[in-house]
Automatic annotation (TrEMBL):
Gene3D superfamilies: Zona pellucida, ZP-C domain
Pfam family, one: Zona_pellucida
Entry-linked InterPro entries: ZP-C, ZP-C_dom, ZP_dom
PANTHER family: ZONA PELLUCIDA SPERM-BINDING PROTEIN 3, ZP DOMAIN-CONTAINING PROTEIN
Residues covered by the ZP domain: 1-109
Protein name as it appears in the record: DMBT1 protein
Gene: Dmbt1_0
UniProt organism field: Anthoscopus minutus (Southern penduline-tit)
Length: 116
């Protein structure tokens, strides 16, 4: 566990351990939950499909493609649960492949129309 006060900045770094220098990381989705077993019901999205959902989220530049750095303000769920769990989905892409998911950025998913 990592302890941080409410509204303090929480800084995170993710790195890919690979000998291939032409791989890069992309943060696709990052969701917080009051429980470690359920990241859908009652969860809070910081980023979804590469789109920033939380106004306190900020990405930081990194000198390396295989390292991601970002921050957000620590918060507490309404149920006064003292713990918040974070689950992030990262994508590994070939650097300079401009058709890859890493270079698409925010992808707005269109909702399907319900037919009668």
């Amino acid at each position: 566990p990592y302890y941080v006060g409410i509204n303090q900045n929480l800084f995170l770094e993710a790195s890919l351990h690979s000998s291939d220098p032409l791989l890069e990381l992309f943060l696709d989705t990052c969701v917080a939950s009051p429980t470690r077993h359920n990241f859908t019901t009652g969860s809070y999205a910081l980023i979804r499909n590469g789109c920033v959902k939380d106004p306190t989220y900020a990405a930081y530049s990194s000198p390396y493609r295989h390292i991601l750095r970002f921050k957000f303000n620590a918060f507490q769920f309404i149920q006064s649960n003292p713990e918040v769990y974070l689950q992030c989905e990262l994508v590994v892409c070939r650097a300079f492949d401009y058709s890859s998911r890493c270079h698409q950025g925010c992808v707005q998913r269109s909702k399907r129309e319900a037919n009668s």
